[in-house]
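QA checklist item 7 of 12: single-chain prediction sanity check.
[x] sequence parsed
[x] length recorded as 103
[x] structure emitted
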Amino acid sequence: MTEQEKINQNNLFKAVASLIGTGKSFGWKKTDSDGNEIPNDQRITYENLIVHNASKPSESDVNTKIQENKDAETATTNKKASGKAKLKELGLDDAEIKALIGA
């Protein structure tokens, strides 16, 4: 499995968990409609999603939540870089910035 496939699966996992809410559970089909076993590295897809104690969110809702999560991660990364740049403008060196914010 490629690194991008792992990221995609992680994004799907986080989006579904967020959409179905607290106290609900979900998993992934282990066999296809013909009874064939689905390899673990191919199971985590919207098509194989099983939601317990809640309705399965639409694929559109899942994709929207994935994009929202990506946008939030990008915003956090950008704010961190901006904050570091501002600290450098104030005269702090890399060691001082790392001591303050740990990065």
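[x] summary fact logged: The chain is about 60% helix and 10% strand.
[ ] second reviewer sign-off
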